[in-house]
Amino acid sequence: MITVDDARALVLGLARSPGTEDIPLYDALGRALASPVVAQLTQPPFDASAMDGYALRSADLPGPLRVVGTAAAGQPYTGATPPGSTIRIFTGAPVPADYDRVVMQEIVSRDGDTITVTNAGENRHIRRQGNDFRKGCGFLPDRPLRPSDLGLIAAMNLPRVTVLRRPRVAVLAGGDELIRPGAEPAPGQIINSNDLAIAAMARAAGADPFILPLARDTEESLRDRFAEAEGADLIVTIGGASVGDHDLIGKVAEGLGMQRAFYKLAMRPGKPLMAGRLGRAAMLGLPGNPVSAIVCAKLFMQPLIRAMLGLPPGPDLAQAVLTRDLPPEGDRQHNHRAKLRPGTGLPEINPFTDQDSARLWLLAEADALLVRPAHDPARKAGEQVTFLAL
Ligand SMILES: Nc1nc2c(c(=O)[nH]1)N[C@H]1C(S)=C(S)[C@@H](COP(=O)(O)OP(=O)(O)OC[C@H]3O[C@@H](n4cnc5c(N)ncnc54)[C@H](O)[C@@H]3O)O[C@H]1N2
Ligand code: MOO
After folding, report:
1. Which of 195, 211, 289, 359 maximizes ligand 1 atoms within 8 Å of its Cβ, making it the mutation to test the pocket?
2. 75, pLDDT greater than 80
3. For residue 339, what are the β-bridge partners?
4. Could you tell me which residues belong to the region Disordered (predicted)?
5. Can you give the pTM of this predicted structure?
6. How many C-beta neighbours within 10 Å does residue 296 have?
7. Which domains does the chain possess?
8. Cα-Cα-Cα-Cα dihedral sign, residues 346, 363, 198, 7
9. Proportion of the chain above pLDDT 70, given as a percent
């Protein structure tokens, strides 16, 4: 058994870039940019009024000033701007070069074509040309694109972007006991829940998952399914990872040429995790217990997908205050399902007493994994501990 840290390094080492694609900006939400987008223009492209009011020279204040024209957004004023003049101006309009400030209309008294200004204040209310970004600036955020990023890239005058292709993730659940949700279980059968959950986690991390038909517990069935995973960047199997007579994933994958990075790590739940490369795909063999599979996917599959996309792999650890005493840990990192609640400074974390790795309901009630390292000594209520948000 290797440590969780060593396993993580080996899994991240399996990451290969899935290549790039050029897509319309509208479709780029949540995608990872492949290279910096470069501003095609300067923004604002001209000195622009930040207020509705009057553009003028500070030296002419408090007036009276003569109104010689109007400028609105999209309708610049191109006339003369002699000393003692002002123009009516609206937010977003270009400010003529001879004027150095805009005053808000609220502090202006107007009488016909003449204005006077009381207490103009410090703020000149002009957004200078290029104060947001300049032509030629590159933008490459270290995270998936957010709605505001799409706005920024649009403002850079770019209708399309080059992003990393979503890694294709083949999700393969297997076991003679499994049937699909909605079918009627015969004695001894259970509903297959894992592949849906794992595929959803793959999608949440930025991948394009596809779920393969269920495999039976035979080498032949598993080989057929692996053949259907052709073209995947990552193959994720679920179940059949342990040591029982029907646990065939490792044997079949190795027969097909899988180069194993490791098998088994010092972690609870999730000990029988397997990782390696199979042809041009990375492969993860998750344990079948539903909570084990999901915890392994959170700690290894999602980081691997994000690493393929050139993003920080995560997940990020945070600190909380323990609400009850805990006994010493054994020789594996233990990821306790737990509930968070607001504390005075840090949040408080309450690990469940039942940590059964088959109980999905408990996982649904959890909002965090309390992460205790192998050989962690006994902990008292009030101590600071580490967690992963779910
Ligand atoms: N002698 C030992 N037995 C076991 C060990 C061990 O070290 N020595 N490890 C245990 C641990 S830890 C885990 S985790 C499980 C993992 O075993 P497998 O990966 O081989 O998983 P299966 O045996 O196929 O299934 C385990 C459990 O999960 C249910 N399951 C499987 N697939 C699905 C699915 N797609 N949807 C819902 N439920 C699924 C399956 O019916 C079993 O109940 O091994 C322990 N045993
Ligand atoms: O490690 Mo198993 O994944 O404890 O249930």
Report:
1. 289
2. yes
3. 350
4. 326-349
5. 0.92
6. 32
7. 4-17+165-308 (3.40.980.10), 23-41+139-164 (3.90.105.10), 48-127 (2.170.190.11), 317-389 (2.40.340.10)
8. positive
9. 100
